[in-house]
Amino acid sequence: MENVIKEILKHIGENPEREGLKGTPERVVRMWKEIFRGYDPKQKPRVAVFKNGSDGLTYNQMIIDTGDFYSHCEHHMVPFFGKYWFAYVPSKDGNIIGLSKVARIVDYHAAKLQIQERLVNNIVTHIWNELSKDATEPLGMCLVMEGEHLCKTMRGVKKKGKMKTSFIKGIFNETQVRNEFLNLIK
Fold this sequence. Notes:
There is one protein chain. With 186 residues, this protein is of the alpha+beta class. The protein folds into two domains: 2-35, no CATH class; 49-185, GTP cyclohydrolase I, C-terminal domain/NADPH-dependent 7-cyano-7-deazaguanine reductase, N-terminal domain (GTP Cyclohydrolase I, domain 2, 2-Layer Sandwich), CATH 3.30.1130. Helix content is 35%, strand content 26%. The chain has six helices and seven strands, in the order H-H-E-E-E-E-H-E-H-E-H-E-H. The protein has a five-stranded mixed sheet with strand order 5-2-3-6-7, with helices on both faces. The chain has a two-stranded antiparallel ribbon with strand order 1-4. Strand 2 and strand 3 form a beta hairpin. The protein starts with a helix and ends with a helix. The mean pLDDT is 96.
């Protein structure tokens, strides 16, 4: 891979042997292993789920997590990044997910070349399946992601702007529940 990076540097008009670039091919290869870790099944996060009510409290209201994400466009291999808002309503007989696991699942799926539309789908599907193992499915789940795509900002049309995508399952398809979620994340 390092030789390929050297050839790319030559192709864009650089000298891979100049002082500032001598270690660049090796650094790029190390960076790719980190930022594209989503292709490594060994790095798929282990997900801790807890039986709803196992601590004496049965919770069947909306649970919301927010955070940041970083990914790469599969069309131009440049970053897109932004914020996410994730929510679900567990069933009384279902599971509750460990909060840090949501962020780990987002990071894992974001660490691939892809489109944002697929990213929201993959994250929700992964979490839904984890919560449904050996338990009743959650009542509903929703993920909204807002991303700035450098393939739009720094090349081509060169315009700022953000893309919002969502993936909705279960009771979040009901207007009242969806509106409650959207009002809470404003």
